[in-house]
Amino acid sequence: MSTSQTPAAPFTELVNLASRLLGAGVVATNEDTFADAENLLVAKPAEFRPHTFGHKGQIMDGWESRRRRGTGADQPHPTDEDHDWAVVRLGVAGRIHGVIVDTAYFTGNYPESGSVQGASIPGHPSVAELADAEWTDLVPRTPLRGDTAHEFEVADTTRYTHVRLNIWPDGGVARLRVYGEVLPDPRDLDGLTFDLAAQEFGGVAEAASDRYFSSPHNLNAPGRATVMGEGWETRRRRDKANDWVQIALAGSGEVLAVEVDTSHFVANAPGWADLQGYDASSGGDPATDTAGWFELLPRTRLQPDTRHRLRLAAGRPATHVRFNVYPDGGVARLRLTGRLTESGRAALALRWFDALPAAEAAAALTGAGLTAAEAGALAAARPLAGPAQAAAAVAALQPADGPDGADTSRRAAAVWRLLGV
């Protein structure tokens, strides 16, 4: 079973790939005279303070371009194709499930229409390389309204590293959110221990018993919480149950250490916590299979405003964890240091490989040792939904010069280096 976080809930429950905390940034724009394009990525909702004027007019909390004009007195209006744009480098690459284009507080100065495009550009591209990239429509040109959070679902299954917001002919957009499934390059994780629950590697808080005061997505957010409101806090319980969060890990992995951080929670930290694991790699469903959960960390006493670092004995691999707090309260961060299992690394690599643009997939295969012809044929055979399909696709490649058996072994070794299957 794949551990891909296919959204059963609205796409807004997935990771915001355009979060500054994850490393996103506005890397290019053609015009932001009135208000900086970087405002698109500010984490908090847009604000409006009337009659706050700067040297360029009313100060707007968003991206706003100047008013476009035509070419002369006989053509004072812009053409139908004249438009402004801003390119955002996603904090983490991934498959985009939905975007929000929010024109909050832009009422007489919002764009008439807009679109969102995606591109996959490996490495650290320059502005010139961004301009030359192949851009794909994720949200086609669509009419926009003022003071509205426009939600657009995206069906494209490609892994993208950048998005471009286009607006016609000019105007202002307050915020841009890009929600999706993180798909890290597995080669970057080989041989490493890392936080299996972290958003930047694909961890997602899938469900929670309570999110009254703040979101469970804060638990595996990047960085340390700076105030209490940046953690996960539940309401006060008046029964004998407990609160919990379920997190899908980056992949099947062995959890080696836990950090439970109650920083800033002084009078409202939980009294105790424990951690359970679930291995869905064989096809189980953690939402319904209550008998499949096993103990990773026994119920442990917590202290307020404290980073608790706890080592775990080597044990069973898990694809999901359930973090239980007793009876209620707030936790700033949960960190699960561990390493991917062999099967977990392979499953992550297959999801990544299937989502790459064809040229990138072929380049990755040639880098692993296949010929250009073999790489092109295997890239065209995607999706490789599992190890069996990957092995069959490798076996179906036409042999090159030399004994067929040796050539098949060479190809299999090259694919193993890249995908682990």
Please explain how this structure is put together:
- The chain contains 6 helices and 22 strands.
- The relative contact order is 0.13.
- The two termini are 15 Å apart.
- The chain is 15% helix and 33% strand.
Mean model confidence by pLDDT = 92
N- and C-termini, Cα separation: 15 Å
Largest sheet: 8 strands, antiparallel
Strand content: 25-35%
- Rg (C-alpha, Å): 24 Å
Number of self-contained structural domains:
3
The count of DSSP E runs of length 2 or more, i.e. the number of strands, is: 22
CATH structural architecture of the largest domain: Sandwich
SSE class: alpha+beta
- Annotation field: number of helices: 6
Order of helices and strands: EEEEEEEHEEEEEEEEEEEEEEEHHHHH
Family: Belongs to the allantoicase family.
Region (Disordered): 53-81
Pfam families: Allantoicase
InterPro entries: Allantoicase, Allantoicase_dom, Galactose-bd-like_sf
